[in-house]
Design a protein that fits this description.
single chain; 107 residues; mainly alpha; 5 helices; 0% strand; extended
């Protein structure tokens, strides 16, 4: 059976931190603040009867060490691929704000 329900919920910083704590306590998984918003909203969702709720994590918690440390008392481990990104030199190019300039810049 395919179900559909659309809801919107606001989640404040305190609830984000609490959701990170509760998720870690219940699953031993560290989630990032954006995922915590989705999980908190999913817990509140009324939804259609019999419908499952799906929350998709889109970021690694190591991208938000301050929030995770505030919630759990420790920073999440940084995976090697992310550490390489942090250690890489910053590169950027300033491109005029026109579609033609962006197309030319990305080839």
């Amino acid at each position: 059976m395919i179900c559909f329900s659309l809801e919107a919920h606001a989640v404040d910083d305190a609830e984000i931190l609490q959701t990170i704590r509760e998720t870690f306590a219940g699953t031993d998984r560290i989630i990032d603040p954006h995922t915590a918003v989705a999980v908190a909203a999913a817990h509140r969702a009324k939804g259609a009867a019999g419908c499952a709720v799906l929350s998709v994590s889109t970021a690694h918690p190591a991208k938000f060490p301050d929030a995770v440390e505030q919630a759990l008392g420790f920073a999440p481990p940084v995976p090697e691929p992310l550490a390489r990104v942090y250690d890489a030199p910053e590169r950027f190019e300033i491109v005029p704000s026109s579609l033609d300039a962006v197309r030319a810049a990305i080839g």
